[in-house]
């Protein structure tokens, strides 16, 4: 039980921040927006619906695994880039 | 020099598994895109060229798909209207040029999570899944069986009932030809509908040449078949009924459960083409009495080139294989499976199940917004039943606008006037014809596909763009002027030349 109790608020917030940061690294507009939307949804569900600590840990690990996938895939997305979509503002280089 | 630093960077990243974002971003920022290179070429040509050679990092959009190229030809072709037509192309400076993708019925983008599953088969897990003498074969076979289970779970089937194929077209052919040929000694009749996908219709036609009798059921103006008519069409020598679950052009959902129970009652096999339905609407092969089901991977954010057919085991459906060979896939579909494709499909199936609620809710919300927005334009109609309808496929007719010209004016949105297979020909959609729409209306219909990766921002853009351009094209149309003046177009006697 002690390991489960170790899941603290800063840990969850940290995971959330990392997920958002990684999602923003996707160069594809649609993937980026989707994972940002998913992050908000997942963590809201996490806050509202998960009651037991086992569930919390399981969900936490699931999101962490997905984060690892996103980290790999966002790098690939940076290697194979495409033109920006018509709804996407082109950022002027600093 | 630069190449070495980055390779080392990437190596560090993968080994430590801790990504130093700022460093890699800094390293990558040096690399210009093709476009920025063009503008700044004169400034610092030598330096940038060197960078490009080092990284081989280019924009992978091919140049001829850019709207600029097509715009030029369109403007050249119609010189008098060229200024006016220019208006039809949305040009927003400071924004990208790639069109919004709204054609998810044709195919969907591959989910990055699916690609992540697939990559390991290209890098290390290369064993033949049918090699059972060594671990290379065992490990890929394990992965394939996991994928099979994920694919089966979506439709409540047993993994043993899933046969992987090259796609829904092959599955449909296998169902129609395979079942009919196996039972040819006693049965020679197939029932299908007029709104099926081309591959079912063509397979049925091929069976007609082999001496089978085919009944094509009509649909009503809503796109639905009449269950009484179906029951009447069933004869003692009927071997198969094939009705698609969700139509690819109008998104109409047929009453699969009712059809299933009719077929079971008459002891006829029931095949459904669920390429557009799988993972998007609730499907259960046992509850719905489905005996065969065709499924495609690239409609559910999986890789292209793979699909599956569900073949019931109890009561057993027998079919003659189309492809003979080593006896893989229960002998029904020989040939080595492609582990990357099959496992990509498996992961995509797992994801559609996991994300079902979130995806459906998202699609429903965007679909309602789009439908309401477009139907607020006067003289527009939604094709197909609004109730028995999958929200991700919205087919709308814009009266007095020619569909192809509207598509030409919508270079910034990737749309289709119907199925990808038939859009090359200029003939109006046979599906809309079957619904009783006239040629003119069938020609002015456009299909909008909404999927997991469509955003609200895109939908807002699309509604605005369509409103503007429909209005613009109607301004040019003399017919529209007459309609505006209240002249009934049917009352006009057109003089011949």
Key phrases:
heterodimer; A: 94 residues; mainly alpha; 4 helices; B: 497 residues; alpha/beta; Aspartate Aminotransferase, domain 1; 10% strand; disordered N terminus
Structural commentary:
The complex is a heterodimer of chains A (94) and B (497). With 94 residues, chain A is mainly alpha-helical. Chain A has one domain. Helix content of chain A is 72%, strand content 0%. Chain A has 4 helices and no strands. In chain A, helix 2 (9-24) runs antiparallel to helix 3 (29-49) and helix 2 (9-24) packs parallel to helix 4 (53-79). The relative contact order of chain A is 0.16. The model of chain A has no long low-confidence stretch (mean pLDDT 88). Chain B is of the alpha/beta class. Chain B folds into 3 domains: 2-60, no CATH class; 80-108 and 356-491, Aspartate Aminotransferase, domain 1 (Alpha-Beta Complex); 112-354, Aspartate Aminotransferase, domain 2. Helix content of chain B is 44%, strand content 10%. Chain B has helices spanning 2-16, 21-29, 34-55, 67-77, 82-88, 112-123, 135-154, 168-182, 198-209, 227-233, 256-265, 339-354, 356-375, 403-409, 430-434, 439-443, 456-476, 478-484, and strands at 100-101, 162-165, 189-193, 213-217, 238-242, 269-273, 292-296, 307-311, 380-382, 393-398, 413-414, 445-449. In chain B, strands 2-8-7-6-5-3-4 form a 7-stranded mixed beta sheet, sandwiched between helices. In chain B, strands 9-10-12 form a 3-stranded antiparallel beta sheet. Chain B has a two-stranded parallel ribbon with strand order 1-11. In chain B, helix 4 (67-77) packs antiparallel against helix 5 (82-88) and helix 13 runs parallel beside helix 17. Chain B starts with a helix and ends in a 13-residue tail after the last helix. The interface between A and B is large, with 37 and 41 residues. Chain B: It holds the Pfam family Aminotran_5. Chain B: Belongs to the class-V pyridoxal-phosphate-dependent aminotransferase family. NifS/IscS subfamily. Chain B: This is Cysteine desulfurase, mitochondrial. Chain B: Its cofactor is pyridoxal 5'-phosphate. Chain B: It comes from Saccharomycodes ludwigii.
């Amino acid at each position: 039980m002690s390991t489960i109790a170790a899941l603290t608020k800063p840990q969850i917030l940290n995971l959330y921040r990392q997920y958002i940061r990684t999602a923003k690294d996707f160069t594809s507009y649609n993937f980026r927006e989707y994972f940002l939307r998913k992050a908000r949804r997942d963590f809201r569900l996490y806050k509202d619906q998960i009651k037991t600590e086992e569930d919390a840990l399981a969900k936490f690990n699931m999101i962490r695994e997905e984060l690892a996938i996103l980290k790999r895939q966002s790098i690939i997305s940076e290697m194979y880039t495409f033109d920006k979509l018509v709804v996407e503002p082109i950022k002027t280089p600093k | 020099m630069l190449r070495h630093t980055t390779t080392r960077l990437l190596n560090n990243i993968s080994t430590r598994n801790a990504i130093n974002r700022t460093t890699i971003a800094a390293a990558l920022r040096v690399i210009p895109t093709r476009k920025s290179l063009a503008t700044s070429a004169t400034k610092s040509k030598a330096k940038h060229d060197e960078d490009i050679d080092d990284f081989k990092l280019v924009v992978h959009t091919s140049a001829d798909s850019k709207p600029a190229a097509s715009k030029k030809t369109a403007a050249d072709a119609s010189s008098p209207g060229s200024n006016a037509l220019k208006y039809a192309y949305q040009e927003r400076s400071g924004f990208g040029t790639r069109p919004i993708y709204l054609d998810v019925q044709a195919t969907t983008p591959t989910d990055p999570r699916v690609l992540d599953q697939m990559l390991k088969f290209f890098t290390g897990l290369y064993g033949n899944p049918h090699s059972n003498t060594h671990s290379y074969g065992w490990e890929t076979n394990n992965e394939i069986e996991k994928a099979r289970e994920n694919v089966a779970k979506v439709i409540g089937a047993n993994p043993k009932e899933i046969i992987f194929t090259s796609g829904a077209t092959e599955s449909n052919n296998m169902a129609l030809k395979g079942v009919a040929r196996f039972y040819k000694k006693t049965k020679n009749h197939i029932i299908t509908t007029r709104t099926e996908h081309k591959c079912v219709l063509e397979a049925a036609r091929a069976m007609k040449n082999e001496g089978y009798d085919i009944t094509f059921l009509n649909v009503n103006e809503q796109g639905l078949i009449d269950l009484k008519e179906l029951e009447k069409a069933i004869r003692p020598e009927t071997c198969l009924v094939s009705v698609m679950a969700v139509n690819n052009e109008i998104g109409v959902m047929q009453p699969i459960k009712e059809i299933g129970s009719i077929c079971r009652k008459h002891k006829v096999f029931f095949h459904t083409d669920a390429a557009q339905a799988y993972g998007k609407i609730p499907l259960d092969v046992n509850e719905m009495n489905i005996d065969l089901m065709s499924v495609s991977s690239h409609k559910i954010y999986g890789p292209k080139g793979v699909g599956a057919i569900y073949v019931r085991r109890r009561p057993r459906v027998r079919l003659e294989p189309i492809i003979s060979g080593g006896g893989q896939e229960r002998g029904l579909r020989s040939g080595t499976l492609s582990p990357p494709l099959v496992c990509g499909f498996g992961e995509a199936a797992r994801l559609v199940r996991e994300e079902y609620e979130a995806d459906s809710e998202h699609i429903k919300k965007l679909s309602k917004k789009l439908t309401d927005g477009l139907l607020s334009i006067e003289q527009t109609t939604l094709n197909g039943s609004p109730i028995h309808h999958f929200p991700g496929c919205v087919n709308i007719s814009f009266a007095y606008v020619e569909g192809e010209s509207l598509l030409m004016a919508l270079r910034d949105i990737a749309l289709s006037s119907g199925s990808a297979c038939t859009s090359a020909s200029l003939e109006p959609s046979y599906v809309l014809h079957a619904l009783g729409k006239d040629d003119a209306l069938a020609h002015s219909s456009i299909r909008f596909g909404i999927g997991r990766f469509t955003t609200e921002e895109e939908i807002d853009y699309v509604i605005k763009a369509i409103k503007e351009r429909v209005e613009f094209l109607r301004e040019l149309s003399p017919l529209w002027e007459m309609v505006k003046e209240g002249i009934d177009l049917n009352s006009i006697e057109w003089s011949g030349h």
